[in-house]
Design brief:
Elements lengths: L7 H17 L8 H19 L4 H15 L6 H8 L6 H19 L1 H13 L3 H15 L6 H19 L13 H16 L9 H11 L8 H26 L8 H14 L4 H17 L2 H6 L7 H15 L4 H6 L1 H22 L2 H14 L5 H14 L7 H18 L4 H14 L10 H7 L5 H29 L4
Amino acid sequence: MKSTDIRVIPGIVSIAIILFLWFVVTPPQGVSANAWHLLALFVGTVVAIIGKAMPIGAIAVLAITLVALTGVTSDKPSDAIKDALSGFSNSLIWLIGIAIIISRGLAKTGLGNRIGYYFIALFGRKTIGIGYALALSELVIAPVTPSNTARGGGIIHPIMKSIATSFGSSPEDGTSRKIGHYLALVNYHTNPITSAMFITATAPNPLIVKLIADATGADISITWGTWALAALLPGLLCIALMPLIIYAIYPPEIKRTPDARVYAKDKLANMGPMSYAEKIMVGVFTLLLVLWAGIPAMIFGEAFAVDTTAVAFLGLSILLISGVLSWEDVLKEKAAWDTVVWFSALVMMATFLSKLGLVAWFSGIVESNIAQLGVGWMISVIILVVVYFYAHYFFASTTAHITAMFAAFFAAGIALGAPPLYLGLLLAGASSLMMSLTHYATGTSPIIFGSGYVSMENWWLMGLIMSVVNLTIWGVVGALWWKALGFW
């Protein structure tokens, strides 16, 4: 780790907060000393993540170390270290880690680019058609790309930039509004929507599943298929409307783009016929979707049900056996191993905050304050979700936001009478859709914003507009859809 990876001021602030909460603040009535001390470590960790004091994986290692050494979960040192490392035994963490490694195959084989150019060749007659092509391309690869940053920023964004450049649209020449401004906004605002549509579309989603299961005593265990089905209608509606809304607010100067289809077809011609590796990727992609959706179990019975994480390992095994990915590729996928480490630490801390009663205490405070308003559970849910959603203006990490707030707001909503699955699905959607707000909301945003096509003013205004649209669709259309499905 380089010295440039360490930011001293955020680190000092994080340590100061831990020491202040630990030694100065007396635990409130009803909160044990251990629970309060773990909260101090947790808050300090979240502040360090928000302030980017160190790489998130390094912060996670420090958090694991402090939990083990301080004994906040157990007085026995041998049990304390087991508790500190318990997050690594969570299968959902490995699901995301393995899926990130599998997604490496999209870039290595070129299949991700082929999908993007294929859709542009189909829909590229007009600028708005290119917008839909970019959105559909991301939607197709989202189920097997748990890094929304890699998907929107690493695969789709270079395609978007090359198209904009081919039409003479560049920030350097002051020609962003020709077409690049519009395509960059579509490129970005697709990302939160696709992230909300699948458990495996962004890393924090499995954490949400875990938090919901913990809060309901495992009475509600959201499967990959349940999540995808629940998000299908609101997600597709959001994707259908988003390019149109951006087009209406920030219309591109170039409206018709017949050359885009030619450009995409030339790119596809240069790529040649689909390679052996790409065909294997398509096969693995299809297999994962079929098994994750639980189709064999639907047809042949529960005896043919396969664990979601086991399916991910199966997909990776096929790629290794076929030679599409090498073990060297697996070792080089730093994002996957980084995710496994920091995810394990956050899941561990969130789990023990719940076990030690801290989440129940905090959710009780939230619940009692809203209950004093004397409104029904529907209005209470609206208040909870809106506060949870727009609090993301203060976060640069969806993971930190979800870890800090999700469990307490979910528990408060249940206490106020909201149907658990309905509330869980709504908060789950909000947890990805809130990425739309700012140019620092998630890892994808600084990549696309940094390309210079969109000013900060335009970015924030479009983010606010799309946040209202997306959240309304998820809250209204989603609620009706879930009611029709019998989810509440």
